[in-house]
Amino acid sequence: xxxxxxxxxxxxxxxxxxxxxxxxxxxxxxxxxxxxxxxxxxxxxxxxxxxxxxxxxxxxxxxxxxxxxxxxxxxxxxxxxxxxxxxxxxxxxxxxxxxxxxxxxxxxxxxxxxxxxxxxxxxxxxxxxxxxxxxxxxxxxxxxxxxxxxxxxxxxxxxxxxxxxxxxxxx
Length: 171
Prior knowledge:
Elements: E1 2-6, H1 12-27, H2 33-43, H3 46-52, E2 58-65, E3 68-76, E4 89-97, H4 106-120, E5 125-131, H5 135-143, E6 147-155, E7 161-170
Parallel strand pairs: 4-5
Antiparallel strand pairs: 1-2, 2-3, 3-4, 5-7, 6-7
């Protein structure tokens, strides 16, 4: 059984732990160990996650499979992108499924849940940034009808950035 629930501040430590693990699983080889650790320490700590909950446009959701946490998503409503002319669009910031749960179509379920949330909030589309070398993610988003709209250098550390595609799905 799959369950998706809205996260709140009491889930911040859970988001930190899953974020660290899934980032390492999917991007741990994309830069030096020091650069990856720098990014993780800045991004996945309780204070940083708690601060995000202050923004009412940010929505975290947790996904459970048979009562066990499998991952989370983060969407930010009303967030523009310089590569996209449309207004009233959402940023799909994170879709992290633990490696042990991949292949169970949980990512697609959580993705569709976020699309519905965006539409319910009268958004005209949704965009995201994806690492150009993350073939698994690129294939997933292309299958979901996202189109490449631009490029972005994702800053891992002061000395390392990874090239990303900006992808967009217009409703």
